[in-house]
Model the fold of this input.
Amino acid sequence: MKKIIIGCIALLVCVLSFSFKDDKPVAYLQHYQASIQKLKDAEAALLQLIRSSELNDSTTVKKIRSSIAVARREMKAVDIWLRYLEPIAHKKINGPLPVEWETEVFEKFEKPYKREGAGLTLAALYLDEENATPDSLASLIGSAIQATDIYTHDSITRSLETYHHFFLCNRLFLLNLAAIYTTGFECPDGDAVIPELKDMIRATRVIYQSFNEGFPATPLTKAYLDLYDATILFCSSQPDAPEKFDHFSFIRDYVNPLFILNQGMIKEYKVVSKSMVDYAINKNATSIFSKTLYNGQNSKGIFVRVNDANTLRELESIGKLLFYDPILSGNNERSCASCHNPQQYFTDTSFATPFDYDHISYLKRNTPSLINSQYNHLIMMDGKHYTLQHQTKAVVTNAKEMGGEEQGILEKILSCKDYKKAFTKLLPFTPQENEITFEHIASAITYYYSKFSVSNAPFDLAMNQQQTVSADVKQGFNLFMSKAQCATCHFVPQFNGVKPPYIGSEFEVLGVPEHKDFKKLSGDNGRYDVNPAYETRHAFRTGSLRNSAHTMPYMHNGVFKTMDEVIEFYNNGGGVGAGLDVVNQTLSADSLKLNTVEKKQLVQFINALDETIIFEKAPVKLPSSDTQALNKRKVGGVY
Done:
């Protein structure tokens, strides 16, 4: 009997072991491992060539470039995995910047830190440098090899044994098809951008097949694969020149519909994320061009737990009154609406920069629109604040802006019975606070103005196949994504500096002049005052191009009054192109060589980003105060 029991246990263990082995997607894992090995082999061959060469003749440099191109093709073939599974390692393999100051969403919890770049893009760019040496070039590729090796670690490969990772990898891949892969953002050779794209999407199709074989219970659907095959055919029929590639049709007819199908599978298969890469992206978004795709800010602030529609309407109503109420200022003469005029898209088009609190001098920076500000993780042009509520409090208490004092402002507001009654009613929704604080005030204000950030533009509707746009708008977008190089800083879909996976904010050094005569660089240090570093001096957060036709003047100091002037500035190579000394300019100093027709088409596209927003009238009156002197204040303030 004992022998029978032991035999049964042994048989059970054998069956379980066999079942467990069969449950693993063996072919899929093998394909992954083989693909990563191909990349490592290509990198190793490149490193060996560099170490055995001198960079003193064109033939050798040409061989190295060719070897870099081979490695890039292998890298692109596995990019769907690399970029999602370990984004930091990916930047070592193909980081576009020599030094990057991380400004991710996680800066809400830690200070920005410096990360040295490495990899294939920097190696290709470094070859053009006069002081390039084999050792320095080898260092860039050596770092890439070490980073590639990370993808063979158990911590990575274990996540491949279930299907969950795949649809999240694929979602990021599709987002980057729309925002990154066709723009040249991380490809140093413009002529290689589209050929690399074609190779990548074909290689990814093989991965798709491998995945479906390994996970037959949760496959990519036939509808998805059929559309993807059509995408391959479309790309194959397109010219290799980026400026001739039909970016508009590519995204509208293929990438966005693929994204929608992938989002459906994420919900159907109950995909679970364990990665901070997915921090901001909304799994319920039904389009890349949906205002629900991602959110950088919590507009409710302290009222984050409130979901009841009636309560939110009350919060919005009180926020509107506060937005127009000069009680928030030290002299009771200045309101939020003084500089952020709701009838001017929540900015001020009257001045290059607004009045100082003293009503005599001017502030050094242009008033940014509050519309779509919630789609940034860092607020203000220098990224000084990481929540809308912090920004609100900072402006109210700034001696040059509203000149208020937090406790004094709170006391004035609570002297108004309507305000006190409203916040007392809302207080139970903020159990972490047992009394009304300035956080309640700031949160009501941010919730009010954020309601204007949900509207679509004609371009959004076109991309969602709900409306058509003119041929000039389509061509303007194609230029935006290619020859004009706009999309290397202003990313789809918000056309701001937040790129997939939408957890970071880009800052750029453009060389903006003090005046239009270009005799002097603007003295504003920008990001440097928040995070001092060589790379951050004169750097500013890349703002959204949405509603640009209504938010002039432009740049941090309002130096340009028209979009035509802005485009000409970029077309001429920014500050360096105009002869200014900007040693850390991130904008290319080369002319874009846009002709008159192309500039007009570019403007036509940018105008198609103007959103259909219904603005409201100002309140008729403000809540009265127990302090009679406060009852003289005017709706919207005096200046």
